[in-house]
Amino acid sequence: MRVHRPWHLILVMIALASATGVLAADPADIDGLLTMTGATLEWDEFTRTGILWGASTSIGFTPDDPVAVDGFVDLFRVDPIVYARGRLLVPDATRAAFAERLGVTGDALRVRPIKAIVIDPGHGGRDPGANRTVTVDGKSVVVTEKDLVLDIGIRLRDALRGLVAGPEIHLSRETDVYMTLGERTEFANSLREHPLDNILFVSIHVNASPQPWTDARGVEIYYLPPSQRRQVLEPEVAAGLEPGVMAILNDLKEEEYTVESVLMGQAVLNAISERLPQTPVERGVNVANFFVVREARMPSILVETGFINNREDLAKLMTPTYRQQLADAIALGIARYVRDFESVR
User: Fold this and answer.
1) Which of 16, 20, 102, 172 could link 37 by a cystine bridge, Cβ 3.0 to 4.6 Å?
2) CB 169 within 8 A of CB 159
3) How far apart are CA 44 and CA 9, in angstroms?
């Protein structure tokens, strides 16, 4: 079971309510609905909004509001849920309407599976990215970021296909071609055919500092800072919602994407540390307002695989064996995250 408590976001499981015995006595409490449907409740105490996650859909609601949202798409009227003394009380008619949409099962909820993973090798074509000229066997060789990350990206795709059976694995580019940043994220966003489709975005880069050569080295991973607000609901979904409802649901989805990005980034960093103990990971998982992690409407991370202007990092990155080991480690971290995401919540 995975329970996230980032800031004010609390994932509530019926097992918790049952164990404490606090809510079970009141048949109008939401725990009865959770028991009936096998759904879980994601509750945002700060905004006083909730999402019920069922096996095939979700229902968003706000206490005292006579409207709920099915699957981030369909609005329907309900008798308002009441929030009193830390408890969510569901009227009988609303409980019946929610149960019909969520499905009545005694099984534990499984989150919708990951539909696709997009691996994005940075730069390409006329954009070489960072580069350094080194001497190999007496000859000057220009090593470019675009070539290193394309090779790592292809290896990563192949490694992932051997570790996860369900998701489609896509590369934003498979050859040395130029792509705008917008084309990369538009491709990833286009894979979502349904508002509840889960897509992941992993951009691969090589780091560089302003100096010709640097002592800085190692892997670091970035995700979008929570303070960077954006619209993550699909445009066609947002267009059909009242502004207030859209804002609430958008905030919930954005909070979810931030949490999942951190968890995915940490899983990748942990796997690299485990499989490649000689590779420094102390730079950690950090925030940055990079275009691709901002515009990909999904959990998104950018992996800096080392410094091209650090002699130790560059020497390793120039070695096919190390690039394979690095790709395998990143794949392991992503696969572990996918299994955790798809497991019982």
Assistant:
1) 102
2) no
3) 5
Closest listed residue to residue 253, CA positions, set 46, 34, 79, 51? 51
Interval 274-296: pLDDT, tens: 999 999 999 999 999 999 999 99
User: How far is it, in rounded angstroms, from Cα 289 to Cα 245?
Assistant: 26
pTM of the entire structure? 0.78
Instruction: Give CA–CA dist 207/213, Å, rounded.
Output: 12
Give the pairing of strands 220-223 and 300-307. antiparallel
Residue range 27-35: mean pLDDT, rounded: 85
Question: What confidence tens digit (pLDDT) does each residue in 54-93 have?
Answer: 877 889 898 998 888 888 777 789 999 999 988 999 999 9
pLDDT number for residue 105: 54
Instruction: List, in order of start, the domains of the chain with CATH numbers.
Output: 9-102 (3.30.457.10), 114-342 (3.40.630.40)
Give which of 83, 51, 14 is closest to 245, Cα–Cα: 51
- Strands 74-77 and 67-70 come out as antiparallel
List of residues 6+ apart from 342 with CB closer than 8 A: 110, 111, 113, 114, 166
Handedness of CA 292, 337, 58, 193 (dihedral sign): positive
In the three-class reduction of DSSP (H, G, I as helix; E, B as strand; rest coil), residue 78 is classed as coil
Q: What are the tokens at 238?
A: 């947002």
Helical H runs in 276-319? 291-295, 311-317
How many whole angstroms separate alpha carbon 146 and alpha carbon 328?
19
Q: What pLDDT does residue 74 have? A: 76
pLDDT at 10: 33
19: Cβ–Cβ under 8 A, 6 or more apart, which residues? none
Question: Residues, the chain, total?
Answer: 345
**Mean per-residue pLDDT for 129-156?**
96
